[in-house]
Amino acid sequence: MFETLIFLAEKSFIETVFCDIEKMKYISLKKYISLKREAGLNSLSLKASKKSVLIVDDNPDFSLFIKEILEENGFDCAISFSPMEALQHVKKSTPDLILLDLMLPGMSGHGLMRQLKNNVETALIPVVALSALRDEDVIEEMLDLGVTEYLTKSCSVKRLVSTLENCLT
C-alpha cells in the first residue's frame, strides 16, 4: 500500500513521494498514478483504508494498551467496555473485526458471541477471542460458537497483530 511520506519543495516545483511499504520502494506521484491506472483503479487514494477493530474488554488500561498497539500497526480502533456497549457500537458502525474478551460484566463474551452470530447483519464479522482463560473446553466452545481465532492475553504483540491481519485478508 502506498502512503504519503514526504513533500519535497524546490522553488515552484513540488513532488509528492510515495512508498510501497511492502517493497520499501519510493516512487513519484506520476508513477503512482500510472500504476493505479494500470491496475484499473480510477480514483486517486493516497492512504490505504485502515481496517477497523472493535475491542471489547472491561479493563480500561488493557483496552487502551491494545488500542495503542493496534493503531501503531495500522488499525483503526474503537473500544467497548461491555457487551451491551459493543452491540450498540456494531449497530451504528460495523467493524471489520471484533477483538473479544470473554469475562465481561453483565453478559459474557460467550453470550455476546451468540448474539453476534445469530444476527444476519453481524454474523460474518470475524471475531478473535483474546482472553486470560486457557481452559481447553472454553477454547473449544468459543471455536464452536464461531470465533475465527482464540488467543490468550499472554500472546506476543507480533502474534496478535499477525493474527488480526490474517483474519482480515
Walk me through this protein's architecture.
The strands form 2 sheets. A 5-stranded parallel β-sheet has the order 5-4-6-7-8, sandwiched between helices. Strands 1-2-3 form a 3-stranded antiparallel β-sheet. A hairpin with a 2-residue loop joins β1 and β2 (13-20). It is α/β, with parallel strands linked by helices and 169 residues long. It folds into 2 domains: 2-38, no CATH class; 52-167, 3-Layer(aba) Sandwich (Rossmann fold). Helices cover 37% and strands 26% of the residues.
Give a summary of the structure in a few sentences:
This protein is α/β, with parallel strands linked by helices. Helices cover 37% and strands 26% of the residues. The chain folds into two domains: 37 residues, no CATH class; 116 residues, 3-Layer(aba) Sandwich (Rossmann fold), CATH 3.40.50.2300.
